[in-house]
Amino acid sequence: MGPRRLLWLDRALDALSGTGLDDGQKFNAATVLTGYALTDATLTHSLGAGGKEPAARAEGATEYGEILTEVLDPATYPALSAMMRSGLLGDSTGWTEDADFRFGLDLLLDGIEALIARPAR
Description:
Number of strands: 0
Helix content: 55-70%
Largest sheet: none
Radius of gyration: 18 Å
Distance between the termini: 32 Å
């Protein structure tokens, strides 16, 4: 946790002030958002960095899906393997498209909104 991550966390906590959430809920909501953003950024960066792992050399989501299809053991990863074999990522146009990230972010924000609207227990 460096100073910049703590600053972002502080700003997220401040944004949640006045929502009626208790401190624990605010902290958990802010850290979930931070974790989501960091995970997405790490995956996007590692795919573009040309690392040693086959998936790290993928130039886009389509190629990433093709690599996963080849390396996933269907016995160990039945759901993910079937999803990749179905061609889910086959029509992807560029790894850095915002649509997938926005989907997840909207999902998280909708959940936080529902938490805020929920009566106190």
